[in-house]
Specification:
mainly alpha, 74% helix
């Protein structure tokens, strides 16, 4: 059985989180596009999208840092 370094596992985790957040951002953007301006919950969707975008950007920065330090899989 091949040993996996802790850094590699951490980077894989960060990539998984980044992908999940990307999907959430996509879904919230679609929900916002489909929500008419007259619906009162539109502001909640906008707020959720902003929060998800911030989380996604943070996850992307962490993943980039992980790749830069050599712990990740640069191919995907």
């Amino acid at each position: 059985m091949e040993r996996v370094r802790v850094d590699e596992v951490r980077c894989m985790h960060e990539e998984i989180v980044e992908r999940a957040l990307y999907r959430i951002v996509e879904d919230l953007a679609e929900a916002l596009d489909r929500t008419p301006p007259t619906v009162s919950s539109r502001a909640l969707v906008e707020g959720a999208l902003k929060l998800a975008l911030g989380a996604y950007n943070s996850a992307r920065l962490l993943r980039d840092e992980c790749r830069r330090t050599g712990g990740g899989n640069p191919g995907g």
